[in-house]
Design a protein that fits this description.
Distance between the termini: 61 Å
Mean pLDDT: 81
Oligomer: single chain
Number of domains: 2
């Protein structure tokens, strides 16, 4: 059962967009596997706060035997994790370090445990008159990475490799962790009742809704102070339309508001706009400056929404860009006559 769907993306950052897309893919697979389940409750984009600390959990799975926290990561390229649990990723052949998503999920888990432990009386029932605790519950963390990533599992510590899963396998991994219930019964693992699952879900939904409302609350505008009265009234000048002139003022020429069509792109180094030559290379269309020999990409941000991910196409001397987000099309550059 999906208690809270994935929030819509409202930012303009390209990296944030692809990160959100990865989380949407994970949410899709979880919904397809557990959308009709009464035993499994799923909350996406869960915001929690306790003891002055705040965290956001990408995906939380609540099941009869415990909790699974899933951190989503959009990764294009290769992923390695050394013996110390330190992560690195490649992009176009360049390797850089990155924070451990597993460690991030573990910190979120600790905060969630503290929050729930502080509210046990309203969440869990009593056994023989004694308040039940969270002890013995199963707490697991996973990292769901893009399906296109290349994982070097043979170099990962086993404790990390067991927690890293590609998007299309995440639902199966969750199902494996939860188990079929028979083995859990044999092992006498503590189990949440349906009412306790209901209590946990309702509490966390109300908790995150309150935090989101607080975050989105607009600041109250402070009304300006009344101006101090002046000692004497000041005479205002007559409006311009009331001034009589002996001769009518000459009409000003109309302003041309049309966007330029020939010099839409300039050299990023020297600002040259005329001495440019359209070319094509490894990373797409660009212009080469005849003055300083600098190359400038034609992939300019969309003027309608500011999105940086655009596709440039060529039609004769004209180069047109299409925004991948809002589909706005606009002229980027037109090759001057006499240039190749």
């Amino acid at each position: 059962m999906i208690l809270k769907e994935k929030d819509a993306y409202s930012g303009t950052d390209e990296r944030g967009y692809y990160g959100h897309k990865q989380e949407q893919d994970v949410a899709f697979h979880l919904r397809r596997e557990f959308g009709d389940s009464e035993q499994v409750r799923i909350i996406h984009d869960l915001m929690i706060e306790h003891g002055g600390e705040r965290a956001q959990i990408d995906h939380l799975v609540i099941h009869p035997y415990g909790f699974i926290l899933i951190e989503s990561k959009s990764i294009v390229g290769e992923v390695q994790v050394n013996a110390e649990g330190e992560w690195s990723r490649s992009y176009r052949g360049n390797w850089t370090g990155m924070p451990s998503p597993i460690r991030q999920a573990e910190l979120q888990k600790d905060l969630l445990h503290a929050l729930l432990s502080n509210n046990l009386a309203r969440l869990l029932g009593k056994l023989l008159g004694i308040q039940t605790k969270l002890g013995g519950r199963d707490w697991q963390t996973l990292c769901a990475v893009s399906s296109t990533a290349i994982l070097h599992r043979e170099k990962m510590p086993k404790s990390v490799a067991d927690k890293v899963v590609k998007t299309e396998f995440v639902a199966g991994k969750v199902k494996e962790i939860i188990g079929n219930g028979v083995s859990a019964f044999i092992k006498a693992k503590p189990r949440f009742t349906l009412q306790e699952l209901e209590n946990l879900g309702a509490f966390l939904l109300a908790h995150t809704a309150a935090l989101q409302a607080e975050t989105e609350k607009p600041e109250l505008a402070t009304p300006p102070d009344d101006p101090a009265p002046s000692a004497a009234p000041v005479a205002e000048p007559a409006p311009q339309s009331y001034v009589v002139t002996s001769e009518p003022a000459p009409a000003e020429p109309p302003v041309d508001t049309a966007a330029p069509t020939e010099m839409l792109l300039t050299c990023k180094q020297c600002g040259e706009a005329d001495n440019l030559n359209g070319m094509y290379g490894q990373y797409g269309y660009y212009v080469k400056c005849g003055s300083c020999s600098t190359n400038t990409s034609m992939k300019q941000p969309c003027p309608a929404c500011g999105w940086k991910s655009v596709k440039v196409s060529k039609d004769g001397p004209s180069y047109t860009a299409a925004c991948r987000k809002c589909d706005h099309q606009y002229l980027v550059y037109r090759q001057a006559e006499g240039r190749a």
